[in-house]
Amino acid sequence: MQVIKDGLARFFEVLLPHTNELQRRVVAGAMSEMLGRGGKTAVATASGMSRNTVIKAEGEVIAGIEPSSRLRAVGGGDKSLLDTQPGLLAALDELVNPATRGNPMSKLRWTSKSSTKLAAELVDQGFEVSSRSVLRLLHRLGYSLQADAKVTEGRQHPDRDAQFRYLNDMATGFIDDGQSVISVDTKKKELIGDYANGGAEWSPEGHPERVQVHDFADRALGDHAKAIPYGIYDVTNNEGWVNVGDTADTSEFAVESIRRWWNQMGRDRFPDADRLMITADAGGSNGYRIRAWKVELAKLADETGLRITVCHYPPGTSKWNKIEHRMFSFITMNWRGKPLTTLRTVIELISATSTTTGLTIKADYDLNWYPKGVKVTDAELAAVPLAPHEFQGAWNYTISAQSDPA
Hints:
The protein folds into three domains: about 1-65; about 80-140; about 160-195 and about 210-400, Ribonuclease H-like superfamily/Ribonuclease H (Nucleotidyltransferase, domain 5). It is built from 14 helices and nine strands. The protein has helices at about 1-15, 20-35, 40-45, 50-65, 80-85, 90-95, 115-125, 130-140, 160-175, 250-270, 290-305, 320-335, 345-350, 380; strands spanning about 180-185, 190, 225-235, 240-245, 275-280, 305-310, 360-365, 385-390, 395-400. Strands 1, 2, 3, 4, 5, 6, 7, 8 and 9 form a nine-stranded mixed β-sheet that branches. The protein is elongated, with a radius of gyration of 35 Å. The termini are far apart.
C-alpha cells in the first residue's frame, strides 16, 4: 500500500505543473475511479486536492462530462468589480477623461495619473479597488500611457501650406538643375563638462558614467562653457557639416558656418553651381527679420559669386526643417548617455555620426569671436542686393553678388 501511495505522490508531482485545473480534475477523477475503495482519499493526499474536489471529479468522469476550455462552470468565480460596485467605471473615467481632468474640483489636476494615485482617489470616494484593477479598467476604457505629442502649433499663417509647397517646388527645381540645396539651423547649445547627457549607454554593470548632480555652467570656462553647433545639411548628397563655436549664436556665426561648408565640402560637390538655395527657420540667428543675416549673406554671395536664394519655413514650423530629422536627431542618438567633457569630444562624436542610409557628417571648431548686439543701419541693409520673390517676399528672397547685373 505504501508503494502505491509513493507512486501516486510521484505521479502527481510530475504531472501537476503541466496541467490546468480542468485537466488535473479529470486525471484525479479517473485515477480515483480506477483505484476503487480508498482511492478518493489516496488521490486527495497525493495530489494535494481536497477530498470533496476528488469526489466531484470522479462523479464527472463516471457521468461522462465532456472536458471544456472553461476552468469553472458558467457563473463561477468572483463577481466583476463593475457588478459589485456600480459607478466605479464612471468614477474612474471622470478622473482621467481629457474633458474633465482640468476640473478645479479634481484632486488629480496637478498630480500624477499613476494607477496607484487613481486607486487611492477611488478608495477615498468609497470604492474598493487596487492599482492592478485600475490598470485593467483603464484599458477597458480605451486609455493607455502616452507622452505629450507636439502637434499644436498655435495660430497658423494663412499661407503656411502654400509656403511649404513653394519651398518644395523651389528645392526640386534647384536639384534638377544641378544646383546646391542646404538646410541650416543651430542645434541646442550643450554644456561643456562632466554633465549628465540624456539617454543610456552600455557600460560595465555597476559602473555608470559619473557626472555632476547639477547642470550649472562652469564659471572657470567663462564664455567658453557651452558648445554652439551650427549645422548645414546637404539635401542632395545626404551629407552634413557642423561648425562648433563657443561664443554666441549670431548671424555672422551662422553665415560663417555656411561659408566653411562651401569651402570644405560644397564647392567640390557642386563644381558647376552658380546658385545656392538655403532653407531655414523663421527665427533665430537666421530668421527672416534679422538684418545682420541678410548683410552677411550678401558678403558670402560677393565672395563666392553665388546667387543665394533663401526660403524660410513659416513661423512655428521649425520641426519640419529637414536638418532636424535628417541630421540633428542622429547626432543626439549617437552621443546619448555620454558627457560632453570638452569641445573636442563634441566634435568627435558629431563626426562619428552615420546612418544606414549613408549619412556622413564632418565637424570642426570655430575659434572666431562673434560679438553680440551688432546693429545694422538702414543704409547697410539698403545696400544688400536683395530681390524679394513675388510670393511672400519676406520669407523668400534672392541675394546676388554685388557685381552681378541680375
